[in-house]
C-alpha cells in the first residue's frame, strides 16, 4: 500500500514503503510551495468545513505555540517541589527504591558492581547492597541471562543489564526459549519476573555492532513485554513497574538519552507498562514515536506549529503490547498517522505498528499510514553517514506536510 | 603492571599524583623484602580468598611506612606477579601435553557381579534405602518400556527412554534432599519418580490432558513440577546450566541449606552454555552440582566426534571446579559421589562436577533408530552384561533384601498400574481452548484477548470441525 499523497509533487512524494530516501522528500518541487501558503490552505480549508479533504482544526486558537512542551499526563499534582536529575540517575533511583522495598530484587551484569555500570545506572548500589546482590558477572550474556532466569524461577527478581542491547543477541536463546516460554510450558508453575535492560539505539559513531535496535528482533517473542523509556520521569516509573511485574520485561534505554535532565516528583510513582504517553495533544495528525525519536519529533513539532500545523505526538512507550486504546483514540480524532522510529524499515516496530493500525483503524484513516524509519543498512561509523541513517526533524516536517495536504 | 621502586614513600605519593592512579596497592613481598607496586583495581588477595568480603576493600590504599631499599635484580625472585596472582617461571620451553598419559580413573564400588570391591570408600546404604532404590530402578525400567511401546502404538506422539542410565537417575536422586532444586536435561525422569511423581502424573504429561501440570503445552517427557523442585524440561540443550548457576546464586543469597543439581549429557557439554554455566558457578561460588551423563552418544555422534579431551571430568579443573569421574552404572558409587558432592556444594558453597560414565542402551528417542549408526551387538552387550539394574539387584539379593518373588510382584503390579494409568490418561479430556492463551503473561494482554475472541468465534461458527469440548 503506497502512500500516494494526493496533490503531492510526483517525483518528490516519498512512498511510505519504499526505502527512505531523504533526497526525495526535499525534492525541488516541494520548495515551490511557500510555507505561509500551505498553512493558510489548512486553515482556510477548515473554515470551509470540508470535512472529507481538509484537516480538522477545531479551534485555531488552540494551536499551541510552545509545541515542544511535553505534557506529563500522568504527573499528579506535585505537592513537593520535586527534584531534578539526569535520566541515568532516575533509572538508578527507581532501581534503588525497588531494591530497598524488596530484598529479592538483585542486579547482575558486566561491570555493574563496584564500577557502577558502564552508564552508571548501578552506581553506588554495590556499596549499599553488597556485591552478591549487585553481581559482577563474567562476559557471557547467554550465561548471565540464563542465570537470571534460573534465579527468578527460584524466587528472586533479577534485573539483568546488557552493557549494550546489541550484546543481548548472544542471550537470544535464553530470552526466547526460556524467558518467554517457561511460564507457559510449565503450565504456570514457574514465573520469571526478570527485567532485562540496557542501552540500545544509534549513538554517536559507535559503529554498526553497537548501534542496534533489538526491539525489532525481540518483538515476536511470546511471553515477554517490551517498554522503551525516554524521559527521566518515565525511566524511573517504567523501571519500577518492570521490576514489580510478574512477567519478563525488556526495558529499552537509549545511549544518547542518559544525560537528559528533568524535574521529577519527590513522592513515589510508577508508570503503567502498557500505556502510551501523550506528549503533545493536537488535531491534525498523530505522530507515533518512542525513545530518542521523540525528541526529533518534538523538534519538528516546533517547526510544524510555526507553519500552522497541530500535530498530536504520542510516545508509544509500550512496544509490546501496543497501547492501541490511546493510539486508536488519537487516530479517530486526527485521521492521519505518521510513525517515526529508529528501527530499520524491514521488520521493525514501525512495520508492526503500521499493520496493527491498518487492521484496527482502517476506516478512520484519511491517508495511508506513513512510517519513517532508518534504512536497511548497518549503521556506518562516519558521522555524516550516520546522521542520514537516522530520521531527522526536517524529514519529519516534510512528511507531515505531505500527509496533511 | 608491576613498577619497581627503590626509593621511599615520598616517591609513592608523587607517583599517585602524577599517574592519577585511584588505587595503588603496595604489597610487601616478605620473602625477598622488596615492595611490589601494582596498579590494579582489585587486590591480589581477592583471587586467593573467598570473594565475599574483600572486593570493596580492594580500592583502599594500603601503605607500608617502611620501604626497604632494593636492588633491581629480578633473577633472585622465584615468582612473578601478574594479575591473578603469583606464578612461577621457567626458562625451559615446555608445552603442556594435550592429554595426560593416563586417563582419570573412574570411582567404583560394586563390581560387575554385584560384589563390593574390597577397601572401597562408600557411604553405607541401609536395607530400606537400598530396597527403595532398587524398586525405583525397576519401576523406571518398566515405565520406559511401556511408554515406549505406547508411542509405537501411536497412543503418544513421542518418548525417550533412560535405559541403561537407571543407576544415575535413581541413585543421584536418592542422594539429594527434597529441597535441592533439580534442573534436568531430559533423560532424568527417575529423579522425579524418586521424589514422588506418580505414574499417573507421568502419563498425564505424556498425553497432554487436562490433568497435566504443564497444561498440555509441552511435548511428552517435558515434565516439570514446582512441588517436587524439578524445573520443567526445556528442549534446547544445556540452557539449564547457566540457569543452575542462577538457582545456586539464589539459594546462596537466601542462605538456604540446599543446592542446585543439574544434568547434562556428553553432547551437551559442547554447547557454549556448558562453559558459561560452569564458569559462572565457579566465580559466584554457587552451590551447584553438575552431573554429566557421559553415555557415549549424542544421537548419532559418538564422543570421539564430540570432543578430544579425556571426557568431561578434566574440564572441571579448567574452571576451578572440583570434579570426579564415577562409574555411572554402579548405583552405590553414584550414591556416594552425589551425596558427598552435595555436602561439599552446600557446606563449602562451591560447584562440583560429576562425570558419570554409562551407555545409552536405548535409541536417542522414538524418532531415532540407533542400529543405523552403531552395531547391534554393542547395544546388546551393554544391555545384558553391563546392566546397572541387574548389578544392583545382585547386591541387594546377596544381602537377602530382595527375592525373585518380590521381583515378579513388583514388575507385574507396576506394569498393571502403568497400563491403567495410560488408559485413564488417554480417556481424560484434553485442555480447553482457553488454555491456549493463558499463562503467556500473568494477565492476558489486549492483543491476546482479541485473538482468543477471534478463535472462539471461529470455532463457534464451525463446531463440527473441532473436537468436542474444544471451546468451552
Automatic annotation (TrEMBL), chain A:
<comment type="subunit">
    <text>Tetramer of 2 alpha and 2 beta subunits.</text>
</comment>
<keyword id="KW-0150">Chloroplast</keyword>
<dbReference type="Pfam" id="PF02779">
    <property type="entry name" value="Transket_pyr"/>
</dbReference>
<dbReference type="InterPro" id="IPR033248">
    <property type="entry name" value="Transketolase_C"/>
</dbReference>
<protein>
    <recommendedName>
        <fullName>pyruvate dehydrogenase (acetyl-transferring)</fullName>
        <ecNumber>1.2.4.1</ecNumber>
    </recommendedName>
</protein>
<keyword id="KW-0479">Metal-binding</keyword>
<comment type="function">
    <text>The pyruvate dehydrogenase complex catalyzes the overall conversion of pyruvate to acetyl-CoA and CO(2). It contains multiple copies of three enzymatic components: pyruvate dehydrogenase (E1), dihydrolipoamide acetyltransferase (E2) and lipoamide dehydrogenase (E3).</text>
</comment>
<dbReference type="GO" id="GO:0004739">
    <property type="term" value="F:pyruvate dehydrogenase (acetyl-transferring) activity"/>
</dbReference>
<dbReference type="GO" id="GO:0009507">
    <property type="term" value="C:chloroplast"/>
</dbReference>
<keyword id="KW-0630">Potassium</keyword>
<dbReference type="InterPro" id="IPR005475">
    <property type="entry name" value="Transketolase-like_Pyr-bd"/>
</dbReference>
<keyword id="KW-0560">Oxidoreductase</keyword>
<dbReference type="GO" id="GO:0046872">
    <property type="term" value="F:metal ion binding"/>
</dbReference>
<keyword id="KW-0786">Thiamine pyrophosphate</keyword>
<keyword id="KW-0934">Plastid</keyword>
<dbReference type="InterPro" id="IPR029061">
    <property type="entry name" value="THDP-binding"/>
</dbReference>
<feature type="domain" description="Transketolase-like pyrimidine-binding">
    <location>
        <begin position="85"/>
        <end position="260"/>
    </location>
</feature>
<dbReference type="Pfam" id="PF02780">
    <property type="entry name" value="Transketolase_C"/>
</dbReference>
<dbReference type="InterPro" id="IPR009014">
    <property type="entry name" value="Transketo_C/PFOR_II"/>
</dbReference>
<keyword id="KW-0809">Transit peptide</keyword>
<keyword id="KW-0670">Pyruvate</keyword>
TrEMBL record, chain B:
<dbReference type="GO" id="GO:0009083">
    <property type="term" value="P:branched-chain amino acid catabolic process"/>
</dbReference>
<keyword id="KW-0496">Mitochondrion</keyword>
<dbReference type="Pfam" id="PF00676">
    <property type="entry name" value="E1_dh"/>
</dbReference>
<dbReference type="InterPro" id="IPR001017">
    <property type="entry name" value="DH_E1"/>
</dbReference>
<protein>
    <recommendedName>
        <fullName>3-methyl-2-oxobutanoate dehydrogenase (2-methylpropanoyl-transferring)</fullName>
        <ecNumber>1.2.4.4</ecNumber>
    </recommendedName>
</protein>
<dbReference type="InterPro" id="IPR050771">
    <property type="entry name" value="Alpha-ketoacid_DH_E1_comp"/>
</dbReference>
<comment type="subunit">
    <text>Heterotetramer of alpha and beta chains.</text>
</comment>
<keyword id="KW-0560">Oxidoreductase</keyword>
<keyword id="KW-0809">Transit peptide</keyword>
<dbReference type="GO" id="GO:0046872">
    <property type="term" value="F:metal ion binding"/>
</dbReference>
<dbReference type="GO" id="GO:0003863">
    <property type="term" value="F:branched-chain 2-oxo acid dehydrogenase activity"/>
</dbReference>
<dbReference type="GO" id="GO:0005759">
    <property type="term" value="C:mitochondrial matrix"/>
</dbReference>
<keyword id="KW-0479">Metal-binding</keyword>
<dbReference type="InterPro" id="IPR029061">
    <property type="entry name" value="THDP-binding"/>
</dbReference>
<keyword id="KW-0630">Potassium</keyword>
<comment type="similarity">
    <text>Belongs to the BCKDHA family.</text>
</comment>
<feature type="domain" description="Dehydrogenase E1 component">
    <location>
        <begin position="136"/>
        <end position="431"/>
    </location>
</feature>
Amino acid at each position: 500500500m503506497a502512500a500516494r499523497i494526493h496533490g503531492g509533487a510526483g517525483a518528490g512524494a516519498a512512498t511510505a514503503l519504499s526505502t527512505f530516501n531523504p533526497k526525495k522528500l526535499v525534492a525541488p518541487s516541494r520548495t515551490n510551495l511557500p510555507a505561509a501558503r500551505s498553512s493558510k490552505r489548512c486553515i482556510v480549508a477548515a473554515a470551509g468545513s470540508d470535512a472529507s479533504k481538509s484537516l480538522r482544526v477545531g479551534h485555531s486558537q488552540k494551536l499551541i505555540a510552545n509545541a515542544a512542551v511535553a505534557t506529563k499526563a500522568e504527573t499528579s499534582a506535585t505537592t513537593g517541589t520535586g527534584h531534578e536529575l539526569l535520566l541515568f540517575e532516575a533509572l538508578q533511583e527507581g532501581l534503588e527504591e525497588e531494591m530497598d522495598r524488596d530484598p529479592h530484587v538483585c542486579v547482575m551484569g558486566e561491570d555493574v558492581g563496584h564500577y557502577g555500570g558502564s552508564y552508571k545506572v548501578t552506581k553506588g548500589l554495590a556499596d549499599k547492597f553488597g556485591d552478591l546482590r549487585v553481581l559482577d558477572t563474567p562476559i557471557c550474556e547467554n550465561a548471565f541471562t540464563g542465570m537470571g532466569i534460573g534465579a527468578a524461577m527460584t524466587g528472586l527478581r533479577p534485573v539483568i543489564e546488557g552493557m549494550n542491547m546489541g550484546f543481548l543477541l548472544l542471550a537470544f536463546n535464553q530470552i526466547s526459549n526460556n524467558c518467554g516460554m517457561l511460564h507457559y510450558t510449565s503450565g504456570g508453575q514457574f514465573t520469571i519476573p526478570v527485567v532485562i535492560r540496557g542501552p540500545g539505539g544509534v549513538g554517536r559513531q559507535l559503529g554498526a555492532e553497537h548501534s542496534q535496535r533489538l526491539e525489532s528482533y525481540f518483538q515476536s517473542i511470546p511471553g515477554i513485554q517490551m517498554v522503551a523509556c525516554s524521559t527521566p520521569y518515565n525511566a524511573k516509573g517504567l523501571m519500577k513497574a518492570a521490576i514489580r511485574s510478574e512477567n519478563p520485561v525488556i526495558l529499552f534505554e537509549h545511549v544518547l538519552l542518559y544525560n537528559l535532565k528533568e524535574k521529577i516528583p519527590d513522592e513515589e510513582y510508577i508508570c503503567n507498562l502498557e500505556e502510551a504517553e501523550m506528549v503533545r495533544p493536537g488535531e491534525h495528525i498523530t505522530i507515533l514515536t518512542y525513545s530518542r525519536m521523540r525528541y526529533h519529533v518534538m523538534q519538528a513539532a516546533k517547526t510544524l506549529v510555526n507553519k500552522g500545523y497541530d500535530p498530536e505526538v504520542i510516545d508509544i512507550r509500550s512496544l509490546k503490547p501496543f497501547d492501541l486504546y490511546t493510539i486508536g483514540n488519537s487516530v479517530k480524532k486526527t485521521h492521519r498517522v505518521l510513525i517515526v522510529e529508529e528501527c530499520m524499515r524491514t521488520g521493525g516496530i514501525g512495520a508492526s505498528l503500521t499493520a496493527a493500525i491498518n487492521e484496527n483503524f482502517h476506516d478512520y484513516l484519511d491517508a495511508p499510514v506513513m512510517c519513517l524509519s532508518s534504512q536497511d543498512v548497518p549503521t556506518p561509523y562516519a558521522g555524516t553517514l550516520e546522521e542520514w541513517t537516522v530520521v531527522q526533524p526536517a524529514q519529519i516536517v516534510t512528511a507531515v506536510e505531505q500527509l496533511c495536504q | 603492571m608491576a613498577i619497581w621502586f627503590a626509593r621511599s614513600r615520598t616517591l609513592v605519593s608523587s607517583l599517585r599524583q602524577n599517574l592519577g592512579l585511584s588505587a595503588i596497592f603496595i604489597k610487601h613481598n616478605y620473602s625477598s623484602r622488596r615492595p611490589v607496586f601494582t596498579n590494579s583495581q582489585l587486590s591480589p588477595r581477592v583471587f586467593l580468598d573467598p570473594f565475599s568480603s574483600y572486593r570493596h576493600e580492594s580500592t583502599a590504599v594500603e601503605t607500608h611506612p617502611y620501604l626497604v631499599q632494593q636492588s633491581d635484580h629480578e633473577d633472585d625472585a622465584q615468582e612473578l606477579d601478574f594479575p591473578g596472582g603469583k606464578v612461577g617461571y621457567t626458562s625451559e620451553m615446555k608445552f603442556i601435553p594435550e592429554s595426560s598419559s593416563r586417563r582419570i580413573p573412574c570411582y567404583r564400588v560394586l563390581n560387575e557381579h554385584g560384589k563390593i570391591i574390597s577397601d572401597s570408600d562408600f557411604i553405607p546404604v541401609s536395607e530400606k534405602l537400598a530396597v527403595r532404590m532398587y524398586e525405583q530402578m525397576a519401576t523406571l525400567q518398566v515405565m520406559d518400556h511401556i511408554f515406549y511401546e505406547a508411542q509405537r502404538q501411536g497412543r503418544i506422539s513421542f518418548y525417550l527412554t533412560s535405559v541403561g542410565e537407571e543407576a544415575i537417575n535413581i541413585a543421584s536422586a536418592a542422594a539429594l534432599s527434597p529441597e535441592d532444586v533439580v534442573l534436568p536435561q531430559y533423560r532424568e525422569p527417575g529423579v522425579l519418580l524418586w521424589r514422588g511423581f506418580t505414574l499417573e502424573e507421568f502419563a498425564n504429561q505424556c498425553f497432554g490432558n487436562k490433568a497435566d501440570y504443564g497444561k498440555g503445552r509441552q511435548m511428552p517427557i517435558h515434565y516439570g513440577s514446582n512441588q517436587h523442585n524439578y524445573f520443567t524440561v526445556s528442549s534446547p540443550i544445556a540452557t539449564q546450566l547457566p540457569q543452575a548457576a542462577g538457582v545456586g546464586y539464589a539459594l546462596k543469597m537466601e542462605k538456604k541449606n540446599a543446592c542446585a543439581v543439574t544434568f547434562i549429557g556428553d553432547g551437551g557439554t559442547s554447547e557454549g552454555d556448558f562453559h558459561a554455566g560452569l564458569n559462572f558457578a565457579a566465580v559466584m561460588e554457587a552451590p551447584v552440582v553438575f552431573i554429566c551423563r557421559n553415555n557415549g552418544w549424542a544421537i548419532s555422534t559418538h564422543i570421539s566426534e564430540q570432543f578430544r579431551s579425556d571426557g568431561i571430568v578434566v574440564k572441571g579443573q579448567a574452571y576451578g571446579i572440583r570434579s570426579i569421574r564415577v562409574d555411572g552404572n554402579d548405583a552405590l558409587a553414584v550414591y556416594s559421589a552425589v551425596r558427598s558432592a552435595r555436602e561439599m556444594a552446600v557446606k563449602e558453597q562451591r560447584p562440583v562436577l560429576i562425570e558419570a560414565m554409562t551407555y545409552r542402551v536405548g535409541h536417542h528417542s522414538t524418532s531415532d533408530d540407533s542400529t543405523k549408526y552403531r552395531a547391534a551387538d554393542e547395544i546388546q552387550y551393554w544391555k545384558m552384561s553391563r546392566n546397572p539394574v541387574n548389578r544392583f539387584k545382585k547386591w541387594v539379593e546377596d544381602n537377602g533384601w530382595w527375592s525373585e518373588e518380590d521381583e515378579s510382584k513388583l514388575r507385574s503390579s507396576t506394569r498393571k498400574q502403568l497400563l491403567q494409568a495410560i488408559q485413564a490418561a488417554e480417556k481424560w479430556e484434553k485442555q480447553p481452548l482457553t488454555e491456549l492463551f493463558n499463562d503467556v503473561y500473568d494477565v492476558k494482554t489486549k492483543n491476546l484477548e482479541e485473538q482468543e475472541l477471534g478463535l472462539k468465534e471461529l470455532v463457534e461458527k464451525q463446531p463440527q470441525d473441532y473436537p468436542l469440548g474444544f471451546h468451552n
